[in-house]
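Practice problem 4.
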């Protein structure tokens, strides 16, 4: 599944990084502790986190995330949006919780 297909299937809000919506999704990872994510995130994972400061973009790049999803409609720092656009990392937002997102991704994808 591609990021753009996930956006459509789950009605996600595309905040930044539109150029990366052709990225292939290979799995899902949920965590908010950045040092843990740096050690565990795998290439192609959708990363679900409530963290919205600019450092999340660097962590997503390091781990080669397919995209980031911010759950529960959380506000996103303008610097984070700008950096995600610059790095072409899709930054998405949903009103669903992280748990609900993971269940829905499993439901609509073959991962």
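Answer key:
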């Amino acid at each position: 599944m591609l990021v753009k297909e996930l956006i459509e299937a789950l009605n996600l809000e595309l905040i930044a990084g539109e150029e990366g919506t052709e990225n292939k999704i290979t799995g899902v990872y949920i965590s908010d502790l950045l040092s843990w994510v740096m050690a565990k995130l795998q290439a192609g994972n959708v990363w679900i986190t409530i963290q919205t400061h600019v450092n999340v973009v660097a962590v997503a790049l390091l781990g080669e995330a397919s995209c980031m999803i911010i759950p529960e409609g959380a506000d996103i720092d303008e610097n984070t949006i700008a950096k995600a656009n610059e790095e072409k990392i899709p930054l998405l937002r949903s009103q669903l919780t992280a748990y609900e997102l993971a269940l829905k991704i499993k439901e609509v994808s073959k991962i």
